[in-house]
């Protein structure tokens, strides 16, 4: 997105009255968040609310994709080696996914069987000697870039990372910057997957790409630069919609294991080899989006600390039609058919069985998605899964990525990296819950078994059903349901 001084001035000048009002209210401690936010955070969040709120001009999906998905090049302390692998000659991976979807559903869900496509991803690693805005070296092949990346890798951590963006956006520069932080904290490397975006690639296109990426780490396709990566050195990572991918992929693997005779490891034919499908070392999620229906109470009650527009606002908006949306034939949701919104591989919050899962890490704010994250974390603990929960007072969605330089962000990155290192090193983790105060960073212990939420499992389906009904009702009214979708 254009970020020159003139472009920023053009953006901010009309907002001067709002900025002055925000600064005055904060300085006089009249803002409801002045005790927990600094002035920079207050201004940033209010600008985002103004840009995304009811008074903003809706932007067509295709234009948003062109603006946010533009690759401005590789810069800074990061090695990037781009990957594109051929489609496997067998159809086994697709068919295994389709069987799991059918087995886990009710039979009433409608969905389209996507074709397999070449895998696109980036290896990312820390480049210690580079300056912050230094371009990548010229004249190097992707293989040479990968070799340089590996020379600076100091641990066995391989983070299979799925980007956020509400399933329809991708900002390469943001995720390279994040890759720098993760690689530096862990000493490892990041495999950042470019899964298919919606609405062009509806469910289960992205999940198929994510599953293919995992298999490609375990058993490198022809021409790959990397050696096989053991599953106990792989951590699934993702923020927001990337958390949807993390948890859905984990549920897919758990279902494949549940469908395999006891004592046997499931396998699949992939690029001419029979490849075992073990579980990864752990799952590390930042503000994961687990309920595509957006039905739980914090979606409305969490607006005090968040910038995402809740359904009560977005229900009143219509996005301009363009070549991408609405689809032909039309559907209720950008990511999936309305009938599939509560499928466990679409909304992982609907999945009941998380037993046998590897350790799960959650980093969340007091945000709109907090309830769904708390419900899943508490459910997993009850089923014997290890959960590491880090909740940050007054912080909005994906705050550590959004608010550069915030002290709480540094704590997030440290905790995230520590979890990844410990699960790969085989350290036996116990359940751990911590609430971190906004300004003092004081830590308070939280009971992850009973202290995260009072929402009972039996209530969750009712909330989700109401969310699904809301989306489908809006679709039936002929209103563009893309306005149901925040920038997650």
UniProtKB/TrEMBL annotation:
Keyword Hydrolase: yes
Residue ranges of every copy of the Alpha/beta hydrolase fold-3 domain listed in the record: 159-400
Keywords for this protein: Hydrolase
Molecular-function GO terms, alphabetical: hydrolase activity
Source taxon at top rank: Eukaryota
Protein name: Acetyl-hydrolase
Native organism: Decorospora gaudefroyi
């Amino acid at each position: 997105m254009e970020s020159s001084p003139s472009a920023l001035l053009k953006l901010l000048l009309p907002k001067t009255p709002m900025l002055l009002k925000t600064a005055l209210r904060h300085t006089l401690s009249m803002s409801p968040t002045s005790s927990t936010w600094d002035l920079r955070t207050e201004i940033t969040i209010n600008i985002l609310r103004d840009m995304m709120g009811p008074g903003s001009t809706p932007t067509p999906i295709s234009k948003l994709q062109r603006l946010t998905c533009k690759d401005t090049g590789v810069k800074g302390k990061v090695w990037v080696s781009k990957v594109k692998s051929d489609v496997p000659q067998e159809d086994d991976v697709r068919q295994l996914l389709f069987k799991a979807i059918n087995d886990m559903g009710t039979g009433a869900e409608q969905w389209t069987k996507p074709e397999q496509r070449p895998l696109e991803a980036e290896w990312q690693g820390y480049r210690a000697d580079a300056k912050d805005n230094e371009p990548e070296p010229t004249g190097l092949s992707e293989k040479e870039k990968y070799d340089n990346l590996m020379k600076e890798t100091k641990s066995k951590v391989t983070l299979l990372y799925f980007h956020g963006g509400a399933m329809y956006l991708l900002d390469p520069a943001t995720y390279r910057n994040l890759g720098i932080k993760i690689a530096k904290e862990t000493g490892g490397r990041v495999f950042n997957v470019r899964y298919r975006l919606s609405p062009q690639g509806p469910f289960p296109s992205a999940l198929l790409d994510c599953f293919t990426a995992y298999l490609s780490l375990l058993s490198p396709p022809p021409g790959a630069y990397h050696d096989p990566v053991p599953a106990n050195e792989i951590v699934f990572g993702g923020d927001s919609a990337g958390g949807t991918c993390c948890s859905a992929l984990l549920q897919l693997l758990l279902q494949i294991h549940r469908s395999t005779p006891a004592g046997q490891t499931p396998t699949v034919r992939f690029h001419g080899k029979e490849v075992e499908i073990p579980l990864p070392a752990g799952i590390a999620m930042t503000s994961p989006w687990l309920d595509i229906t957006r039905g739980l109470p914090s979606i409305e009650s969490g607006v005090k600390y968040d910038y995402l527009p809740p359904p009560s606002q977005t229900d009143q908006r219509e996005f301009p039609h363009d070549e991408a949306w609405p689809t032909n034939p039309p559907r209720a949701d950008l990511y999936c058919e309305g009938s599939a919104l509560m499928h466990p591989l679409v909304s992982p919050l609907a999945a009941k069985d998380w037993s046998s899962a590897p350790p799960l890490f959650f980093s969340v704010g007091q945000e709109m998605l907090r309830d769904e994250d708390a419900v899943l974390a508490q459910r997993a603990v009850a089923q014997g899964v290890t959960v590491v929960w880090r909740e940050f007072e007054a912080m909005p969605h994906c705050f550590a990525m959004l608010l550069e330089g915030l002290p709480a962000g540094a704590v997030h990155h440290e905790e995230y990296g520590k979890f990844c290192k410990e699960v790969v090193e085989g350290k036996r983790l116990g359940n751990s819950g911590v609430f971190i105060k906004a300004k003092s960073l004081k830590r308070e212990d939280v009971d992850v078994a009973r202290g995260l939420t009072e929402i009972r499992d039996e209530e969750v389906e009712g909330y989700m059903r109401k969310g699904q009904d809301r989306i489908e009702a809006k679709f039936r009214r002929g209103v563009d349901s893309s306005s149901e979708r925040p920038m997650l």
